[in-house]
């Protein structure tokens, strides 16, 4: 299939690109490099032996995006391009509404005009806000509590209402939980930026001695050890879910919604312990107040995706931690794992 990947030089898009190429799809990437660099294109090439077509382009620019569609004529689109920081979305909601919703609108217009009939959308656990039940299923109430989550839910609704009017179109919404890890070949991983504040980015900073201790937000949650619990998923498992979702969209209903999680929750302490074991050194902790809006516990039911496709999460938490350490050059590559 000819697949256009928006945001394909970002963290999740680049890993997904390698899986798509390995499975024989023809790929083109559009990315404005607002949160990535063109080096990632070379890294995809080194990893797969194929350098995809690339347009440096802002998807908000409809005319330019049409030129990409005109030139590439994709059958399907996987849409990663978006802003993704919760705190930034609270500071600058308009930028998030514009990029995440208007960007999706531009893309749908192009798909309509150029008859691209399959669509996979990157959504997020943030659409559930503070989940009303565990595990979180696709039927759990969606009630985002920050502008980031609101824009992703609005984009989902936009996609649903558009697809309902087009008989040939099929769409899949994937709601990701907490992706971690890097590609085993060693050329791709999450580029930790100054503004990256997720748990693993912070652990990496401590292990690199850029920061003395890890701030642990909350020690009195109603969880096993009092720290927040999340559903961490290996980036390669997440990448593979996209290719399975594209396949699933061929045969079933017009719009499918899937959670992409493992079904297991791990606490902050679990993650720290696993990194310490993989690294062979301690991560000093500093307990702090809970972050505003942080749920105690979030983990997904991935049963719907498993029932409809061959997808299974195959990598362990240790695989996630080891691959991060290898990518960050904190540990030499070990023996080939099952990745
Ligand atoms: P990322 O920032 O690494 O990748 C996004 C890419 O999109 C970047 O390369 C950026 O340059 C590009 N981009 C942004 N706006 C653009 C625009 N207007 N035009 C063209 N390119 C644009 O983020 P990621 O972690 O790979 O996330 C990808 C998607 O997954 C996002 O839609 C995000 O909301 C969603 N998501 C991410 C996570 C996570 O924890 N990383 C979790 C759930 C959902
Ligand atoms: C994980 C756990 C923190 C940092 C975010 C977005 C979500 C989705 C995934 C995009 C929590 C604790 C963290 C630290 C800590 N992204 N923590 N010290 O908040 O589950 O999800 O990324 O769609 O929308 O909100 O991820 O990695 O920030 O936090 O103790 O320095 O680690 O309290 O329990 P989160 P996270």
Q: What is the CA-atom radius of gyration, in angstroms?
A: 19 Å
Say what the CATH topology of the domain at 2-183 and 231-261 and 302-314 is: Rossmann fold
Portion in strands: 15-25%
CATH level 1 class label of the domain at 2-183 and 231-261 and 302-314: Alpha Beta
Please report the distance between the alpha carbons of the first and last residues.
24 Å
**Molecules bound to protein:** nicotinamide-adenine-dinucleotide, UDP-4-deoxy-4-formamido-beta-L-arabinopyranose
One letter per element, helices H and strands E, the order comes to EHEHEHEHHEHEEHEEEHEEHEHH
Name the poorly predicted regions: 335-339
Coarse shape: globular
Q: How are the strands ordered across the major sheet?
A: 3-2-1-4-5-6-11
The tally of strands reads: 13
Percent helix, as a range, is 25-40%
- Give the name of the CATH architecture of the domain at 2-183 and 231-261 and 302-314: 3-Layer(aba) Sandwich
Largest sheet: 7 strands, parallel
Broad structural category: alpha/beta
The CATH homologous superfamily name of the domain at 2-183 and 231-261 and 302-314 equals NAD(P)-binding Rossmann-like Domain
Average pLDDT works out at 95
Number of helices: 11
Describe the overall structure.
A seven-stranded parallel beta sheet has the order 3-2-1-4-5-6-11, with helices on both faces. Strands 7-10 form a two-stranded parallel ribbon. Strands 8-13 form a two-stranded parallel sheet. It has a domain of 226 residues: NAD(P)-binding Rossmann-like Domain (Rossmann fold). Helix 7 runs parallel beside helix 9 and helix 9 crosses helix 11. The two termini are 24 Å apart. It is α/β, with parallel strands linked by helices and 339 residues long. It is built from eleven helices and 13 strands. It binds nicotinamide-adenine-dinucleotide and UDP-4-deoxy-4-formamido-beta-L-arabinopyranose. The site of nicotinamide-adenine-dinucleotide (NAD) has 26 residues, from helix 1, helix 5 and strand 5.
């Amino acid at each position: 299939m000819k697949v256009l990947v928006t945001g394909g030089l970002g963290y999740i898009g680049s890993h997904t690109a390698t899986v798509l190429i390995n499975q024989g799809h023809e790929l083109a990437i559009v990315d404005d490099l607002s949160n990535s660099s063109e080096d990632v294109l070379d890294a995809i090439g080194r990893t797969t032996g194929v350098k995809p077509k690339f347009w440096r382009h802002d998807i908000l620019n409809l005319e330019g995006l049409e030129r990409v569609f005109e030139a590439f004529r994709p059958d399907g689109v996987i849409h990663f391009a978006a802003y993704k920081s919760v705190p930034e979305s609270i500071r600058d909601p308009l930028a998030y509404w514009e990029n995440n919703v208007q960007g999706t609108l531009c893309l749908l217009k192009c798909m309509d005009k150029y008859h691209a009939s399959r669509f996979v959308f990157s959504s997020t656990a943030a659409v559930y806000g503070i989940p009303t039940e565990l595990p979180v299923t696709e039927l759990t109430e969606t009630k985002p509590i920050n502008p980031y989550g609101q824009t992703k839910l609005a984009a989902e609704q936009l996609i649903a209402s558009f697809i309902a009017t087009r008989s040939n179109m099929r769409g899949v919404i994937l709601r990701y939980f907490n992706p971690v890890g890097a590609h085993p070949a060693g050329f791709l991983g999450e580029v930790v930026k100054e503004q990256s504040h997720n748990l693993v980015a912070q652990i990496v900073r401590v292990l690199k001695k850029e920061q003395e201790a890890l701030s642990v937000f909350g020690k009195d949650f109603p969880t096993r050890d009092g720290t927040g619990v999340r559903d961490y998923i290996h980036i390669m498992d997440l990448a593979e879910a996209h290719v399975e979702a594209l396949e699933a969209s061929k045969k079933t209903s017009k719009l499918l919604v899937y959670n992409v999680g493992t079904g297991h929750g791990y606490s902050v302490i679990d993650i720290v312990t696993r990194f310490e074991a993989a690294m062979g050194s301690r991560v000093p902790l500093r307990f702090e107040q809970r972050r505003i809006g942080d749920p105690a516990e979030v983990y997904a039911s991935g049963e719907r995706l498993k029932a409809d496709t061959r997808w299974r999460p195959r990598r362990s938490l240790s695989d996630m931690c080891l691959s991060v350490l290898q990518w960050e050059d904190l540990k030499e590559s070990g023996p080939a794992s099952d990745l």
